[in-house]
């Protein structure tokens, strides 16, 4: 059996082993590896492609000047019309009756004038011979003047009735193309209610609906090239001539009208066209989609400081693009932003910045 000395030796050995184990340093946790991109602000001018259509510079709404029942329609949508051409007619019966009545009134007043004129002539002949009194002469003269005034009024009424009758024919005031029809034969319409829309011949515009945010800065270059959507080879150049001052309540857009210098063959009225323009350049930072995350509900990115710690930085997204985002505010030049590996991070975590595979390959001999 071993003596007490052996036990003391074994105890000292165990104490030495345990002391040695306690002196070992804790193993450092492996840092997450991330790819970063250095912030480099640049002038960013986004390209915007708009879609619109070709419209006539002058478009008019044609309507009857009197109410009535439509009995005839001579044109339809897409028809070409000429100035003074009759487009539709109303039932003229009621207005013809007014003309006949006014005509009868004129005849009656003409007879009255003839009668009072003869009476006045008699008074003129009798007065010098003292066969009549001055009062009778004055009465005859007054009756003549009254009948003449009544005749003039009846003639004016007849002219007005004839004008009203002529308004039963809807006449084009200029040459052009019918673009819309709002009434049919048999329909009873009121005066001034639009019946046809007429695109007058002459200058043409390309009309686009644009969101207001794209027009915060007025572009210096107002020249625009418009191309046919179905065939981009067919193009026309023009200049911006009008921007509506108010935003449409229905679409939330403003309307831009581009005056076309010359309409090429194959770009007719109503053709769908497109135009590409650039928004005014602004300082911004372009980052890949993978860099964007969020802090609560606000967009954010992971920023790596000089000590290698990653923290969230709230940013303002100016524009979303295919494969990238444009950061308009929240970043300064020289900062390192995580572009890959952000899903493994938490605030104040130490990270290891890895070299992208493409760069690593390029550094190989």
Describe the structure in your own words:
The protein has 365 residues and is of the alpha+beta class. The protein is built from four helices and 25 strands. It has helices at residues 4-22, 93-126, 134-166, 357-363; strands at 33-38, 42-44, 47-56, 59-63, 68-73, 80-81, 86-90, 169-171, 176-181, 188-189, 194-200, 204-211, 223-228, 235-243, 253-260, 272-278, 282-288, 293-295, 298-304, 309-314, 316-321, 324-329, 336-340, 349-350, 352-353. The strands form five sheets. Strands 1, 18, 19, 20, 23, 24 and 25 form a seven-stranded mixed beta sheet that branches. A six-stranded antiparallel barrel has the order 3-12-15-14-13-16. β21 and β22 (324-329) form a beta hairpin. 19% of the residues are buried.
Give the C-alpha Rg: 46 Å
Class by alpha and beta content: alpha+beta
Largest sheet: 7 strands, mixed
> What is the oligomeric state here?
single chain
Mean pLDDT: 84
Number of helical stretches of at least 4 residues: 4
Number of strands: 25
User: What coarse outline follows from CA principal-axis ratios?
Assistant: rod-shaped
Strand content: 35-45%
In terms of per-residue confidence, which ranges show pLDDT below 50 for 5 or more consecutive residues? 17-21, 359-365
Binned, the helix content reads 25-40%
Question: What order do the helices and strands follow?
Answer: HEEEEEEEHHEEEEEEEEEEEEEEEEEEH
Straight-line distance between termini: 70 Å
